[in-house]
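Table 4 source record.
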Amino acid sequence: MNHTLYELLWLFFIYAFAGWMIGTVLAAVREKKFVDVGFLYGPLCPAYGLGGVVFAVFLTELKDHLFFLFLGGAILSFLVTEFTGLILERIFHRKWWDYSRKKFQFGGYVNLPYSVVWGVLAVLNIHFVNPFLKGVWNRIPGAAGEIVLTVLIALTLLDLAGTLTGILKVKSHVKKQSLVYSVSENLQKTADMMGQGLTRLVLRRMERAYPTLDVGELLKARKEQEQKKKEAREKTAVFAAGCSFYKLVSLFFLGAFLGDITETIFVFATAGKLMSRSSVVYGPFSIVWGLGCALLTALLYQYRNRSDSFIFVFGTVMGGAYEYICSVFTEIVFGTVFWDYSKIPFNLGGRINLLYCFFWGIAAVVWMKYLYPFISKWIEKIPKKFGIRITWVLIILMVFDISLTALALNRYTVRQTGEGIHTVVDGFMDEHFPDERIEQRFQNLKLVN
């Protein structure tokens, strides 16, 4: 877990390049010709780079627990793949890969055997590959290494900007067209508008990298999707229909509030003391519960009619993984931990324990089978205009609350070192959020040495 930004950047570019190289070779063997599988023009697959960084950040401390290291790798790869697939489908209204015909698949994005392979790779990654790579880049003079990374970052950003510009121009052009052209006409007219063949290059690379992703069909599907959206908007004025953005945001706030209240009651019933369980300095909101509620709903929405046992197992595993990730994240960002289960049996590094993982599973069943259908109906009854406005007001207030909390916690951590006031912000935090207030608000807060 103790990696510097310098080391994480090296890991990102090394794994991004390795992923591109392996994927390109496998695709070339399969197609009997060279196939560039990268989303960018350069020889990089950012998803693999992100995976390497995520493994290093969240799994390093599990090095001595092989089973949990394997399980963590499988779960993290599941989450990265699932959300990457969902985001790409949101943007392009088309799946870039589809495992729907596989026996052990989840949502068409994740294939269980591949997740198992990633679990094995996580073990190899943490035990052998990363220590070897660290020895390699440590041989590079510091100044030279920083220059190389700076150049790589600049080139990657330019590459990403060029790729996204081409894609956005395609989307903009498709929206403005009033006639349905053939695939070749669509590509040619878009390329002519863009100039210098940028759009044409993007589309051709997409076709070569993803044979199952027919660009012509993508454009056609995009146009049909826009038409369906327009018709849907005309026919209904329902706020937060289905598993939409506004529904998930509403569930986040509701989950954050109910989670804080539930934990407060639970602690009072078991420990006999009333204490705040909020994650922010203002309001009874537990961010962990709010995000957990929204993310779990997004993942399980399409499987809400599956058996209770399926949802329980899914909630237990994903809930435990989510809580572990949150614990590591807060420790890295704030230098503090908000909970410690070290005294509870069957715990993992004090971050999670088996009993509370079961609680996540039970909560998933109760939520998806009983609470969500009821709450969802009431959310959709909110007038659309009012719902949209109040949602954005709440988002702005929450962003402010979280930002202020981050500053207050950071200043609290700094004060423990005896460091004095250097800026106006430091003085403001010392005056309005002294140690007594922070410790009263976050009674389980512990500093990490």
